């Protein structure tokens, strides 16, 4: 599949590398066509990867991942363009965290809406799926690096999009039983509000290499 990853940080490059390993064609999107981080990543995967602006990468892709800072994601997706996102699965990995007043951060919501909901509202023709925002980048793509069973959430108003994302997650190593359907895109509220707890746990444990499990 042609997958466009918007974001050149640790999350974007980690997801992009794993997707390439799994046989996908991947391009990294950024504000500038010659972004240095993207160029370094592309140099490591010259035959199957590329880079470009947010708009060119979204337009090229069959599936788009938002791995940009949560406070700029709507701006990034506007730059990508509604046309480039229409009809496509858009995986939103971002967390709208405001660290400007220190720790713990504020989870920013506008009119009580999570970022996932705001993205779906702003781009009604995109099939937005909130997922993978509740763990660190390495755990996202190497779930078997943790002992035992643990959970990854998917939230979306589009059941067919959830199935596509579930298939990608299984390629990363998640088992079907570990992929928890949290409901519609409004479930993004809880998935984003979990972040202050995740950050507290990280501080208490001195490590970001952990996750939680939903058990019955
Ligand atoms: N770190 C983790 O393990 C982790 C885990 C779960 C979720 N997340 C979430 O994943 C997202 C990505 O995190 P990250 O640490 O990899 O990257 P990041 O530093 O939060 O974001 C990097 C991207 O944001 C873009 N960007 C920054 N300022 C911008 C602006 N003013 N306008 C437009 N674009 C701008 C950058 O564009 P350029 O490429 O042009 O510089 C870059 O591509 C975040 O929302 C984060 O909360 C992170």
Observed structural traits:
alpha/beta; 38% helix; two-stranded antiparallel ribbon; binds NADP nicotinamide-adenine-dinucleotide phosphate
Structure description:
This protein is of the alpha/beta class. The chain has one domain (2-205): NAD(P)-binding Rossmann-like Domain (Rossmann fold, 3-Layer(aba) Sandwich). The chain contains 10 helices and 10 strands. The protein has helices at 10-21, 36-43, 54-60, 73-80, 82-85, 115-122, 137-141, 159-172, 188-193, 195-205; strands at 2-6, 25-30, 49-53, 63-66, 89-92, 97-98, 106-107, 127-131, 152-155, 179-183. Strands 3-2-1-4-5-8-9-10 form an 8-stranded mixed beta sheet, sandwiched between helices. Strands 6-7 form a two-stranded antiparallel ribbon. Helix 3 packs across helix 4 (73-80). The longest helix is centred in the C-terminal third of the chain and has 14 residues, at 159-172. The protein starts with a strand and ends in an 11-residue tail after the last helix. 41% of the residues are buried. The mean pLDDT is 97. The site of NADP nicotinamide-adenine-dinucleotide phosphate has 24 residues, from helix 1 and helix 4.
Short description:
This protein has 216 residues and is α/β, with parallel strands linked by helices. The chain has helices at 10-21, 36-43, 54-60, 73-80, 82-85, 115-122, 137-141, 159-172, 188-193, 195-205; strands at 2-6, 25-30, 49-53, 63-66, 89-92, 97-98, 106-107, 127-131, 152-155, 179-183. Helix content is 38%, strand content 19%.
């Amino acid at each position: 599949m042609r997958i466009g990853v918007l974001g050149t940080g640790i999350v974007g490059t980690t997801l992009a590398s794993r997707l390439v390993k799994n046989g996908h064609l991947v391009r990294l999107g950024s504000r500038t066509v010659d972004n240095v981080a993207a160029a370094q990543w592309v140099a490591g995967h010259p035959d199957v990867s590329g880079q470009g602006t947010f708009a060119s990468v979204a337009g090229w892709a069959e599936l788009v991942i938002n791995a940009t800072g949560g406070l700029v994601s709507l701006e990034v997706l506007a730059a990508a363009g509604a046309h480039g996102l229409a009809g496509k699965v858009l995986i939103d990995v971002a967390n709208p965290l405001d660290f400007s007043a220190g720790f713990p951060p504020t989870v920013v919501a506008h009119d009580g809406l999570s970022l996932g909901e705001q993205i779906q509202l702003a781009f009604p023709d995109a099939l937005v799926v909130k997922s993978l925002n509740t763990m660190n980048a390495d755990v996202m793509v190497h779930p078997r690096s943790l002992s035992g069973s643990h959970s990854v959430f998917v939230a979306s108003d589009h059941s067919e999009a959830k199935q596509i994302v579930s298939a990608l997650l299984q390629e990363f190593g998640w088992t079907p039983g570990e992929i928890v359907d949290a409901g519609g895109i409004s479930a993004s509220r809880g998935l984003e509000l979990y972040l202050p707890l995740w950050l507290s746990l990280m501080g208490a444990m001195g490590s970001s290499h952990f996750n939680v499990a939903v058990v019955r």
